[in-house]
């Protein structure tokens, strides 16, 4: 079996490559390197540089590498940018996916794992978000992920393609400092960025109906997330007939933004008191996964805690921003 991993040179993709090759799976990466970094990949993993929406290239890669399964991570992923450029997001994340699925079906590939997101749920009023919680995305990014799930499932049903949609909650940390996230779009790198500039970390809203007034989120270590991809990929391979699996990938535990800020201060040694800004539109008070389906159906549970996420993310940050250590 060979797995094609689109977006494999990205932050999460590189961890998925590592988990899958570490478990003995054969992989090939397709990445246009728009945000990916080739050095994140082991030297013996073939990297094809190009678009996951290039049909001719896909036909060639699927055939030359005798691909039997696809893990599709390549996508545009910034919520704010998706509001400004919805057409780009729909083209990349939905139209591009349709091209990929056409190539997959034409090549007779039978397994397809799709990177979805908790953004498909929007701002649900639920203590724990289950896979049955209604999906109501509130921005084009979340819409494209939900449309992507529909597309993958419909193609799966029509063409005997087993599909697994993984709805990631808040991804953090790194298995190795070199594999860390280089973007500053999530709360942990945003805190690091402010502290490195000797500025107070910002908390958006402290008047939410939560115990300390700040938003509560479910953080998942990227190495655990990568292991979840391996578990889903293997389940799709084991199954006799086509499967259709949709799973939350979280820890089922909430951490408030203030608790996270305290932990970041302790781990980094930069103890600058956070400042409170007004709420941001679209932030739910609480977004915590029910992780029951993954544990009951696949026997997978996250092993790494929030401290390990912040420590490993900080190591990665300091590798790219050595001034952070002396600030
Ligand atoms: N990081 C998160 O917190 C998070 C949360 C939920 C879902 N996701 C999803 O996980 C996936 C990976 O995210 P990430 O954080 O690793 O982002 P990333 O930007 O680090 O990785 C995306 C990778 O895909 C490549 N890519 C983008 N468009 C491509 C295209 N058309 N053809 C080929 N390659 C292309 C990029 O070069 C990059 O290597 C995305 O689908 C994203 O929507 C991420």
Task: Describe the overall structure.
- This protein is of the alpha/beta class and 327 residues long.
- Helix content is 41%, strand content 17%.
- The protein contains eleven helices and 14 strands.
- It has helices at residues 11-22, 55-64, 79-84, 86-106, 140-159, 187-196, 222-238, 257-268, 292-298, 306-320, 323-326; strands at residues 2-6, 26-31, 47-49, 69-72, 111-117, 162-168, 170-172, 202-204, 216-217, 219-221, 244-249, 255-256, 275-277, 286-287.
- Strand 1, helix 1 (11-22) and strand 2 form a beta-alpha-beta unit.
- Helix 2 runs parallel beside helix 4.
- It is globular, with a radius of gyration of 19 Å.
- The relative contact order is 0.15.
- It binds nicotinamide-adenine-dinucleotide (NAD).
- Nicotinamide-adenine-dinucleotide binds next to helix 1, strand 2, helix 4 and strand 5.
- It comes from Streptomyces sp. 900116325.
- This is UDP-glucose 4-epimerase.
- Pfam families: Epimerase (PF01370).
């Amino acid at each position: 079996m060979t797995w094609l991993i689109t977006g494999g040179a990205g932050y999460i993709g590189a961890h998925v490559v590592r988990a899958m090759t570490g478990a003995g799976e054969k992989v090939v990466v397709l990445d246009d390197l728009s945000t990916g970094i080739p050095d994140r990949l082991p030297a013996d993993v073939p990297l094809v540089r190009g678009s996951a929406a290039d049909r001719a290239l896909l036909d060639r890669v699927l055939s030359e590498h005798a691909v039997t399964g696809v893990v599709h991570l390549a996508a545009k992923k910034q919520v704010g940018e998706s509001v400004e450029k919805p057409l780009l997001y729909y083209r990349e994340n939905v139209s591009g996916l349709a091209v990929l699925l056409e190539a997959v079906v034409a090549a007779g590939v039978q397994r397809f794992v799709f990177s979805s997101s908790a953004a498909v749920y929007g701002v649900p009023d639920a203590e724990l978000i289950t896979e049955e919680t209604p999906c109501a995305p509130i921005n084009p990014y979340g819409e494209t992920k939900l449309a992507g799930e529909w597309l993958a499932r419909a193609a799966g049903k029509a063409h005997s393609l087993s599909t697994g949609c993984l709805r990631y909650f808040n991804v953090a940390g790194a298995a190795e400092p070199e594999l860390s996230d280089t973007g500053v779009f999530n709360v942990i790198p945003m805190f690091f960025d402010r502290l490195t500039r000797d500025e107070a970390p910002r908390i958006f809203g402290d008047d939410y109906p939560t115990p300390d007034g700040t938003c509560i989120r479910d953080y998942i270590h990227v190495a655990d997330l990568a292991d979840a991809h391996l578990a889903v990929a293997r389940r799709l391979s084991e199954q006799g007939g086509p499967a259709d699996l949709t799973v939350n990938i979280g820890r089922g535990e909430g951490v408030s933004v203030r608790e996270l800020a305290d932990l970041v201060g302790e781990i980094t040694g930069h103890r600058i008191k956070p400042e409170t800004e007004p709420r941001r539109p679209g932030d739910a008070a609480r977004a915590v996964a029910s992780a029951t389906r993954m544990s009951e159906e696949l026997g997978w549970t996250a092993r790494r805690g929030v401290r390990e996420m912040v420590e490993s993310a900080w190591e990665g940050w300091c590798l790219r921003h050595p001034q952070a250590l002396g600030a």
